[in-house]
Design a protein that fits this description.
A: 426 residues, alpha/beta, seven-stranded mixed beta sheet, C: Sufe protein. Chain: A, 41% helix, binds pyridoxal-5'-phosphate, Nitrogen fixation NifU-like protein (chains C, D), iron ion binding (chains C, D), iron-sulfur cluster binding (chains C, D), NIF_FeS_clus_asmbl_NifU_N (chains C, D)
Amino acid sequence: MTATGSSTLPGLLPDLEVIRKDFPILSRRLADDRPLVYLDSANTSQKPQCVIDAMVDHLERHNANVARAMHQLGAESSEAFEAARDKVAAFLNAPSRDEVIFTKNASEALNLVANTLAWARGPLEVAEGDRVVITQMEHHSNIVPWQLLTQRTGADLRWFGLTDDGQLDLSDIDELITERTKVVSLTWVSNMLGTINPVAEIARRAHEVGAIVVVDASQAAPQLPVDVQASGADVVVFTGHKVTGPTGIGVLWGKRELLDQLPPFLGGGEMIETVTMERSTYAGIPHKFEAGTPPIVEAVGLGAAVDYLGAIGLDNIHRHEQAITGYLLEGLATVPGVTVLGPLDPTLRGGAVSFEVDGVHPHDVSQLLDSFGIAVRAGHHCAKPAHKRFGVQSSTRASSYLYTTPAEVDAFVEGIIATQKYFKVA
Amino acid sequence: MTATGSSTLPGLLPDLEVIRKDFPILSRRLADDRPLVYLDSANTSQKPQCVIDAMVDHLERHNANVARAMHQLGAESSEAFEAARDKVAAFLNAPSRDEVIFTKNASEALNLVANTLAWARGPLEVAEGDRVVITQMEHHSNIVPWQLLTQRTGADLRWFGLTDDGQLDLSDIDELITERTKVVSLTWVSNMLGTINPVAEIARRAHEVGAIVVVDASQAAPQLPVDVQASGADVVVFTGHKVTGPTGIGVLWGKRELLDQLPPFLGGGEMIETVTMERSTYAGIPHKFEAGTPPIVEAVGLGAAVDYLGAIGLDNIHRHEQAITGYLLEGLATVPGVTVLGPLDPTLRGGAVSFEVDGVHPHDVSQLLDSFGIAVRAGHHCAKPAHKRFGVQSSTRASSYLYTTPAEVDAFVEGIIATQKYFKVA
Amino acid sequence: MSVDLDSLYQEIILDHYRNPHHAGLRDPFESEVHHVNPTCGDEITLRVHLDGEPGHETVSDVSYDAEGCSISQAAASVMADLVIGQQVDEALRKHQAFLELMQSRGTIEPDEEVLEDGIAFAGVSKFPARVKCALLGWMAFKDATSTILAGTASTTTPEENR
Amino acid sequence: MSVDLDSLYQEIILDHYRNPHHAGLRDPFESEVHHVNPTCGDEITLRVHLDGEPGHETVSDVSYDAEGCSISQAAASVMADLVIGQQVDEALRKHQAFLELMQSRGTIEPDEEVLEDGIAFAGVSKFPARVKCALLGWMAFKDATSTILAGTASTTTPEENR
Ligand SMILES: Cc1ncc(COP(=O)(O)O)c(C=O)c1O
Ligand SMILES: Cc1ncc(COP(=O)(O)O)c(C=O)c1O
């Protein structure tokens, strides 16, 4: 495939062919010698060579444990690990590097907040009678931790519903965000509907009642400039593997005042100040929340990843995603029997497009597309409640990224038409 | 350095020079063009090329999210990830692959057990008046989680003390393990003293009173054949980065009957059966305990690592470690002013040797050794209580592994002598 | 490797998908179960009605309400065809044969005597991600039947998560 | 890179290590603090005694009980020499100068007027793992002094964990 199909599309990354060369997997041939058309980036992104090389260089030349090792390799490894923290802090425009905590993924980061709020004593504690507010478009990872928290503490779990066009329904915000509300946790960008939420506005309302605002930026961080200070949030989380970094690492940024007051999450090496058999005292942030050997080579990979994205520019990536998403929505609009879930205006959304094909189950759609070498996701995308809201059990999702070309979108749309033919629904 | 100094040492791995070639970092030159003498393997092990290559191949050719992705890359990635679980199950002689849970490190695995026992309802619940028993030689990661558990629940934390030669003092076992005891958690091999504990015997006693036995195999798994069934334990944990695998992954093995009864730990994607806004039901093991995107490329690396160790043979590695440790203990015995902490008989211990040098602080010892290219660890090695037991605040630790040669031990012993000279204590 | 779509989507499978046999929930039944494929959300509610002496029961009826892909829907339909009217032993033997076929990765030649239309699913075993789909209804049947035989008839919701 | 051991272990440092000045805990004091280096376990208990008018206090005494490596012990000894008898402002200025020197990675030329024997630690700044050692006593002094000035004299146990 020559990937320059509609390279006149305004907003496309200018060096798209060069960027694609950075990703070794994009030259993979699949069954029947098909080229890979990877449209599952909201699930996990592909990795550029520079990320892989940074990890290999670390493993082959600098590997040692961090903090505790004082020899030359230990110093190199610690420096690489802490440099990754600096890079992530810069990526998020965090006021302090110490506010950046490495977790294993976004899910752990959200559980960290939910658990420490249950264990906190004093004003932060979430207890019986308190309220936690989420939304109906959350990923399961931003639902289940709060269900567990509210079940264990006797607090009350409430949520924003959705409008028919896949936006947050803010009409009952005054009933939801009240004096009782201790936490508001919401996604910045929906992984199913693509919706971009008005995070700063909701944060402002939540802060009026003194609630803590947690923002799940798992889908935002890959494709928008994320400025944690401008976001108004108290906590922002994202996951390494969706920002061209490796698995095994996630990020929790939190305001120092908040993190300082929260009790520790997991106990163990690295998070202590001093330990006796009877009792222990704990380190300051970020170490307080990083028990055990941290994801060292993963941090090195993530540091290289955010450097890579930063060099291309998040604004440019955002424009590219909007251009590709617009083109993909236009393409789908030409196919009878296809219904897109979520906003239809590409400027209101991220690059994940979920849709239904009349008469063909998403499994079967994705199976057919896969036979053409096109990778999409079928199922509930870890957003069962959002699917239920729209009366569907599952959907097919095509999600682009900075390496996606208009020609790939063309192949995808043709694939949908061929699928309809195969199942004799068109 | 020609690393065949005393290659006549009985028990050494026969292909030591070939094995060393598997580890790219071992050819690193440090400052002043010194060859690396890596004696910090109890802190983290070095990685063979096959582990690095397996990770690179996955990232460059097979990267996709697991379980949820149904396309070809998704199938390849899921297969690689689940194959790693099979490999780890075989490595541990686990009765079922489903009993193998991937965590982020050993510390998380221990916290998982401590937290779910607090949250459990019914006979497993650890509550006020119940007792948890640990030992004075535990790593902080097997102390702090139990302190947090007992503080939060009002249960009672007790521990086995140590004898002067660094063994567990089992003289008060009948007072410690009683009808009130719900959990006994102990390390198989001490990371500070090197002591190998009689795990099966303690497990037998603990089971007589119906307690759950948790074994921290973080130092055992790298160097002994670990058969979870023979161990008698209910839960065994270890960490990837110490068995020549990557950081970012740990393993929890637990008996199915136990794991099935425990409530979930972290909530999120992958660990659910079904989710509504009001409530969720959870997947069976192993997924119940694996919230969020798991450490995929790390599992691939860990799978390659346990294959690598298995091909060499854990029995052979154990013999090698004993031979090297014996040689190292002999070497230190020739140096006046050096005191080894822990058992002096190499057959009773693992390959981590902590010691004191009269008149020179461990920081200064390790700094001097580092200037000769020799990497050891100085400090409390995350075992403050064990240090306190022996009246020392910190120590220097030399820890070997399957790639360690007698010539490296010679260099280390000479380094100690040179250190004493530098600080004018000999 | 080649993606052998037609070996997956056999005409028999698509026929059963378009016109599922024995669909809809019916009385009487001794056990009703609800199974979910957690990966994709496919669901089935399934009822089993047994008749006959303890130790010699017959599967008098299997009825179900399923939502899912072509493979899962067709497999439920074929399963109902195969087990209704059979001795329980024989029905469970067919379950076992189907399970083995699905886990075979294309290496087993299915026995048409035992599996009838079920042999059309041989191709599914080469698509690991779809094996769960084909097994959803069968697992529900096994679960419901075992529950009755164990004398603990109730509504259960286990998961299929391999 | 070369491991410049002698730039780390200056003779002055080893002298202070072998014969620490002002060691031992003494009365009177307004604040006592206990600091730990969590990585290695090095510890210091340190007391500060100030005299004089609010706004014009003098450091009358600094006494300490420290357990640690040559660098941390020698740094505490040099620190006590430098600050005892100084105006608080001047003592804190020396703290600041020492901190900057330590964080300089060998790029700052230390001012002997201000730091006296402390200039011997310039080499430490090239060993990132040892910077914490050199700062342990200084951080304890800063903490204890600030506590007195804030009028909240008490025994605190913070950590040094950068
Ligand atoms: C005995 C022991 N237990 C637990 C751990 C913790 O392992 P990790 O830091 O990988 O969680 C270690 C290593 O640091 C150890 O040596
Ligand atoms: C919006 C959103 N939140 C949270 C997550 C969870 O991320 P992880 O699985 O890496 O923990 C995801 C991705 O799966 C996501 O899309």
